[in-house]
Structure formats: structure tokens, C-alpha cells
Amino acid sequence: MRRTIVALTILCLALLLIGSAAVAQDKVKIGVSIPSATHGWTGGVNYWARVTQERLQATYPNLEIILVTAGSAAEQANTLEDLYAIHNIDALVILPFESDPLTDPVDMLKQQGVFITVVDRGLTRAGIEDIYVAGDNPGMGRVSAEYMVEALGGKGDIVILRGIPTVIDNQRFDAFMEVIAETEINVLDWQYAYWNRDDGFEVMQDFLARFPKIDAVWAQDDDIALGVIEAVKQAGREEELFIVGGAGMKEMIKRVMDGDRLIPVDVLYPPNMIATAMEVTALRYVSNAAILGHYILDATLVTPENAHLYYFPDSPF
Amino acid sequence: MNQEAATGWAKVKELGSRISWQDVGPLIAVFALMVLGTAINPTFLSMGNLTNVFTRSAFTGIIAIGATFVIGTGSIDLSVGSMAAFNSGVMIIFMNYLVQHWGATWATVTAAMALSLLLGAAGGLVNGLVITKGRIESFIVTLGTMGIFRSLVTYLANGGTLSLNLPVRGLYRPVYYGTFLKIPIPLIIFCLVAMVGAVLMYKTRFGRYVLAIGSSYHVAHYSAINVNRIRVLTYILQGICVAIATIIYVPRLGSASGTTGYGWELEAIAAVIIGGTAMKGGTAKILGTVAGAIIFSIIGNILNLSDAISQYLNGAVQGLIIIGAVLVQRTSKE
After folding, report:
1. Which residues does chain B have within 8 Å of residue A14's beta carbon, measured at their own beta carbons?
2. Is the ipTM above a cut-off of 0.90?
3. Is B43–A209 a contact, with Cβ atoms under 8 angstroms apart?
4. Alpha helices in chain B (DSSP H)
5. pLDDT in tens, A54-68
6. What pLDDT digit, counting tens, does each position of A246-260 carry?
7. Same domain, A211 and A245
8. Domain containing A92 — which CATH number?
């Protein structure tokens, strides 16, 4: 009996916690739906979404921003229903978990008259979103490759550590290979390192054991790059090669800023693109600026000269 | 029921006497994989590569030693990977805090190690108590704590990554990268944990009780074994193993995030089962578990050393080798 009561109390508390988010007021409501912070980059997205939420609400009293996170595509579809049914949102800013499963749920809101801003991952049907904000994935591959060609003088042996097998990863990789194909740069091998440090470390250890001479590493992502750095240090081969990561993690930007020989540059794929999307969406309700369209953010090459512009020590990423 | 229990006790006696010839099976599988690795790329046998492979197996290996006890009783612990991540996170935060008072000294590092062991034991105690006192399946309880520990580390890291203070890292680094008599320290710790595990399992009353519970819960209960106490103890032991793995993991990359230790629980459980321990409990092969962990590490290494196979098929090859390795050891018994 007592066990049942305790169990029921816990269940009720959990429900209360979820329910307390719903407060109705007479303002323009913008729902923001993002993946929960499960790794570095989405951690950055969460941080920037919160910072921007506070800034917008403080600056424009007529705006209410409702921020929800989801741990999976299915959960995100549910939060969309709640955003509309409970909060009655006027606009939605969404960074979809996956493109396919979220296309219909977003379209449903569109048909109810909700203004739609899609971030990073596009929906599979065109014409649903009013605004699209994204980083430049092929651009990331291209910019990285162009830097490598220049730094290596058009020839040398490199290894590549890829992310998780996805469309994004393929776009980066294909664009990189396209640039490399016209040069004498030889890709010794590539492996997936799943966008995390431990796999980056282990894959790089094996590459170092296998290849006596490596001129450069394209790690494609800053988390992978951090693992690669440790493996290279362990093998004592820091003088032999350099590493190009990507995303814009503060630790890596700091290294570039400090002129680290191992990390000469970084290529941006900024998590604060969520801030861009939220700000632009808010403009619709507070100004007469023309805002509809596609915004593709540059895959900027971060060098020691411009690194200070992209260094945010307060961000978790 | 009785017959089952009787064979269970017979097995216990047999195991108590000596490490039997059956334990050699997994070692044969390891040897076969090493031959395969060398055939694919002679670099495999280089001192540097072998050191990497064995050292990497230490994390899941140490955790798997603890898992051998939990699985020996017929239970399971799914929370170990998340617990390792949470433990790493707390260790890093604690050291970053202590360094302001004690500086980058061994006192700071030692205190963090002690905290890790304490946390591990406490985490195991919670798992064990909820399972036994709450009378809930271990699968469900540890599935729950797996999610809890994982979110806690994500919360502590604010969704990002926790990084260890640089001077402390410099000091702590040798615990992963250092060697003693040319043997990497993680490997020495792995061997010690395995030896202690073997003694506990085969030479103590605790070990015999673990296997008795795994053979038949009810018979063990009616034989006046305090079943709950032993089960809680296995979870505490598992937690301590996780803490030891964490202590050698943190100096490797000096960071912890939501992805730390992701999937370690499956690797640890697989290492135990590949090593010949039965999923339903009642038998336990410590040496087999060690071999199982090494097998896992070798497979990953072989895949990275070869470009004969499309990288897109890595998962499939991994699956085939695991099944093959178990087949090799099963047939070698006969």
C-alpha cells in the first residue's frame, strides 16, 4: 500500500513538472524546438537558444519564446503538437532531429497558419518553411580541402576521420574529395570516428601505427580533432603533421588564436545559427524588414588573425 | 529444480578447484584473431600497436570483471557506461575545484580517485538496494539509472564537455600513458583487477554464493544464503570496477561529456558472454572475460588497419568476427 502511494506521488510530481511549463498570455508566441544537449555541438545550440531567448524577451516585451528540447525524432514530433495545442504558437523555429520523420508534423503546423523557420537540417518537401537557416556543409569540406592544398603545396599524404554516416557527413566528404582530386594529395585511408573524442583517439592511434608518414589529418570536427591531438602526442609525432577540425569549439578557436602549430586553422559550422534563426524570425513581429528566404552561413576559415571574432569563452562548446 | 541446483553446486565445486581447461577456449579465439590481424597487416604485431590494443581493452575489461559477478548471479547492470561518464564528470569538477586550494598536486588527484571509488560504490549500492528491496528486475532498474547517470553528466557539463584543469592533467597523465617495466599502467591495473576478481570468485565464500544464486535463486535462499546481501555486494563490486576504469580513463583525454562511455555496457556484457559466462548466471569465467574484452579491442583495431573491406561494412564484419570468435572457442572445447 505504502509503496503504491510513494510510486503515485512520484508519478504526479513528474507530471506536474511537465505541465507547469504551460502558461497562457496574450503575446506573440514563438516556439523553439531543438534536440536536447547530447553532445558538444547540440550543447552549443542549447546554450545559444537560451541566451537568445533571454535577449529577445528582454528587448521585445511583446514576444514570448517557448523553448523545448527533445531526445529523439518521435519525441520532437510530440513536442510540436504540444507547442500548438497548449501554447498556440504563432511561429515555430525548429532544428529537426531528422528530416524525414519531421516533415509531416511541421507541415501540419504550417497548414494551421504557423510561421515556419527551419534550421540546419532541411525538410524533405520543399515549400513548407518560410525561412531556412543553415551552415554550409559542402562549404566546410571545400574550405578545409582548399586550406590543405595550400598548406601542403598541392602534394602529400593525409588521413581522414569522418563523422556518423549521414547526409551531412557525405556532403562534407564529397566536397572535400572533389577539391583534393585535382591535386597530388593522396588519401591514405578514412574511417568513421562518430563525431566523438574517444573514437577520434582510437582511430588515429591505429592510423599512426599503420602509416609511417602522415602530412595532415582532416578530422572534420573539433571533438574528433581533440582525440586526434592526444593520439599524435602519445606517438610523439607532433612535428610531422597538422590537423584541420571543424565546427568552432571554443578550445579549438583558442588554440588557433594562440598559434598552435598542430591546429593552424578551424572551419566554422557555428551552433549559434539557432540564434540567427530566432532573431530573424522575431524581426517579423517587431519590424518591417524583409526576412523571407534562405540564409546559408559561411563555412569561414578561422585563422590566428580573425579567431578573436569567434571566441566565446562562456559558451559550453 | 533440485537437479538444476545439484548441477549448479557441482559446477561451483569444479570451478573452485582450479581454472579448468574450458577457460582456454577464449584464449584460442584471441590467438586466432591475432593471426588474422597479422595476415591482414603485419603492423598489427608491432609493439606500439599491440600496446595500444591491450591498453584500450582495459576500460571495458575492468568493468567486465565486475559484470562477471553481476551476471554470475543471473542479474544484469546496464548502467555501467553512464556511471563511468557521470563518475568522470564529477572527478573532473572536483579536481578543478580542489586545484584552487591544493594546487596541481597528487593530493588533488588522490582525493578525486577516492571520491570516484566512493561514488562507484554508492552508485552500485543504490542499484543493488532498489533491485533487492524494491523487488524490481535488474534490467529495469539499471535501465533507469543508465538514463539518470547519462543525463546527470550532460547536466553537469551544461550540454557540452567538462575539461580537466591543464596543470592537473599534466600531473595525472602518466596514469594512462605511463609504463612500469615497459608495461602500460592501465594494463597492469587490468591484470590486478582480474586477479583479485579470480580470487574472489573462485577462492572465497562470496564467490561460491554468487554462483549458487545464479544456479538457483530459491535453493540458495533456502540454503540460508543471504541472497539480497550478496546481490547488493555484487553491484557494489561492479560500481567499484566502474570507478577504477574511470580513474584510468580520465587522464587519457582529460574530458567528459554526454557521449563518454557510450555503449560500454554492451561491450562489457558482450565480453563476459563471449568469455563463456552464461547470461542466466551460475557460471563465471574471469579469464574468459579478460579474453572477451581483448577480442573486442582487437576487432576494432583490425578494421582500422585494413582497407580491404569497405568502411560502410565495419559493423557487419564486427558482428561476424564476434560470432566467429565464440564458435572457435565452443568447438575447441570438444
Report:
1. none
2. no
3. yes
4. 2-17, 24-40, 47-72, 80-102, 106-133, 138-156, 166-172, 174-177, 185-203, 205-215, 217-222, 227-253, 264-274, 286-305, 314-333
5. 999 999 999 999 999
6. 998 988 999 999 999
7. yes
8. 3.40.50.2300
